Amino acid sequence: MKQRFSLGFGSMGKIMPYKPESDGWMKGLVGFGLTILIVAIAGAVARVGTREAINYAQSSPSSIEADLENTFADNPSIASMFYVLKEKYPSDYEALISGFSEKVRGGASGAEINVYAHSFMRSFAKSSKKDFSAAPQQNLIEVLEKHVPLLDALSKDSSSICAEFVTTGLGPGRQLSTPTLEAMAEVVSLQIKAAAAGRDSPAPRQPPSDSDWEQVGSAMLEYGTLEEELNSLANQTYSTLPVDRQCEVGKALYRAMASLPPEGAARMAAYVLIQD
After folding, report:
1. Is the Cβ–Cβ distance between 99 and 108 less than 8 Å?
2. Which pLDDT value is given to residue 230?
3. What pTM was estimated for this model as a whole?
4. 131 close to 196: Cβ distance less than 8 angstroms
5. Helix, strand or coil for residue 163?
6. How confident is the model at residue 15 (pLDDT cuts 50, 70, 90)?
7. What secondary structure does DSSP assign to 41-98, as a single string?
8. DSSP code of 23?
9. pLDDT, mean over the chain
10. What DSSP assignment string belongs to 126-159?
11. How far is it, in rounded angstroms, from Cα 236 to Cα 143?
12. Residue 172: predicted pLDDT
C-alpha cells in the first residue's frame, strides 16, 4: 500500500504539504545552463588564446561565433543548446555573442569570461521563467523526465557535484564527464524549447496542489528517502545532510516528480525547475 506523506507541518498539529519558498531550494536548473555555456566558452577562449593569427583587440562577434563553431566541432554534444538558443531566442543569443566579443577585445581573462557567462545565463534563466512555466504539458514533462538520467550521470561524477546541482546550481569551473555534459546539453535544449513554446502558445497553470506534494513525498519514501530527510526539506536544514544523502534525496525528488500523473508532473516542473 502506498504510504501518504506530507512535506511539512502546519500549526495545531495539522499536516500540510510543504511548498518551498526559499531561493536556495532545488535550484539545479538555474545552474545547469551556466555550466554548459562556461564549458563551451572556456574552450572557445582557449582556442583564441592559442592562435597567434587572432588579435584579441580585433575579435568581432563573427570571429567569436566562428570560434564557438570550432569548439562545437570538437564537442558536438554541447552544440545543440547553442543552436536552440540561437533559433528560439535570437536576440539573447546575439547579446551573448556580442558580450563575449566585448570581453575578449578588452583582454578579459578566462575567469572573467566565465563570470560573464554565468551572470548572463542566470539572467536568461530567470527572464524565461514565465515562458517556461506556461509551456505545454508535454514539453514540461519531457524536461522533468530527462532530469532523472542527468542526476544519475552527475552522481557518477561525484556526490558533491550532484548535491551542488540540486541545492544551489552548479557554479563555474566544475569538471564534468562527457556523459554528464551530453545529458546536460539535452536538458538545456529541451528547457529552451519548452520556454519558447510557452512564449508562443502559453498554457497557464496553477501551482502544484496539496495532493501533488503528498504524492511526491510518498514516492520519495518509496525511493529510499528517510522521513527525517523529507522533514529537512520542510525545516530548511536539507543542506546539513551528508553530501551523498543530499545527492540521493535530490535524485529521489526528481524521480518522484516525474512519476506523478501528467498534469501534476507538469505543475511540479513549472513550479520547481526554475526558481527566482
Report:
1. no
2. 86
3. 0.77
4. yes
5. helix
6. very low
7. HHHHHHHHHT-TT--GGG--HHHHHHHHHHHHHH-HHHHHHHHHHHHH-HHHHHHHHH
8. T
9. 75
10. HHTHHHHHTS-HHHHHHHHHHHHHHHHHHHHH-H
11. 26
12. 60
